[in-house]
Design goal:
Layout (H helix, E strand, L loop, with lengths): L4 E11 L2 E12 L3 E5 L6 H9 L6 E6 L2 E2 L10 E4 L11 H8 L3 H8 L17 H13 L5 E5 L7 H14 L4 E5 L3 H7 L2 E6 L2 E5 L4 H4 L10
Parallel strand pairs: 3-8, 3-9, 6-7, 7-8
Antiparallel strand pairs: 1-2, 1-4, 4-5, 9-10
Bound molecules: adenosine-5'-triphosphate.
Length: about 220
């Protein structure tokens, strides 16, 4: 039995007189990686922000273990969100950012003494490579005592070696957290996800076979030939 279950239900979102999200149901359990795919502009980032609670919309039901939350991000221990673009203050060195994020010595230590963070503690975020920065951001979010992480393009622009390092990090935390991941590196998303969902025409459709991604026009037929 999963310990916790996040459900996003009946989400409707209109933008510029068009319904972007028409009727969404998306769920994630702790111990699970759910891959969210969809074409550019299909509404994946919007959906993650709605689930997190920072994107207002007229109609939504976000539940954790059956309890409804209007703004999940305001509640401790529920959900964290990795946005597409870096969310770190660019005028603070990494060691300062860690101190700002965490009071608990054990959490600070876990990040400060991490072998891939240690060499960069005196740097500013813009002095890190894209892969190093994404890795550090994930380390920060993973130390939060949340049940679910929403990751918007964690692999974008990341070399394969960092993709695998990020995956190792997620696996370390899978026993206590669930992940919803969206990224255009679809082969990685398909490889690492327990379930894949395609956001198309405003709704989430379960993908049971990667070739369905061709049928929905998300990947070219040549991808599987
Ligand atoms: N502030 C805004 N004003 C107007 N339109 C917006 C705004 N933010 C997003 N949109 C539109 O909403 C749609 C969905 O955007 P969103 O970023 O959620 O898509 P996405 O699936 O995450 O795209 P991508 O894969 O390119 O990151 C797009 O058509 C986008 O142009």
């Amino acid at each position: 039995m999963p310990e916790h279950k996040l459900e996003a239900d009946s989400i409707i979102y209109n933008i510029a007189n068009r319904q972007l999200l028409t009727d969404i149901y998306l769920s994630c359990e702790t111990g699970e990686i759910v891959g969210l795919l969809g074409r550019n502009g299909s509404g994946k980032s919007t959906l993650l922000r709605i689930i997190f609670g920072t994107q207002p919309t007229a109609n939504k039901h976000i539940r954790v273990n059956g309890t409804a939350y209007q703004a999940p991000y305001k509640h401790r221990n529920l959900v964290a969100y990795l946005p597409q673009h870096s969310f770190l203050p660019d005028n603070l060195r990494l060691h300062k950012i860690i101190e700002l994020y965490f009071q608990e010595p054990d959490k600070r230590k876990a990040i400060q003494e991490h072998e891939r963070t240690k060499p960069h503690l005196n740097k500013f975020p813009d002095e890190l490579s894209k892969g190093e920065l994404r890795y550090f951001e994930l380390l920060l979010l993973l130390q939060k005592d949340v049940k679910f992480l929403l990751l918007d393009e964690p692999f974008s622009g990341i070399e394969p070696i960092y993709t695998d390092r990020i995956l190792e990090l997620l696996e370390e935390h899978l026993s206590t957290k669930g992940f919803i991941i969206t990224d255009h590196n679809y082969s990685t998303v398909v490889r690492i996800s327990d379930r894949v969902v395609l956001l198309t025409d405003g709704a989430c459709r379960s993908i049971n076979n990667p070739e369905e991604l061709v049928e929905y026009g998300y990947v070219p037929a040549s991808a599987f030939s």
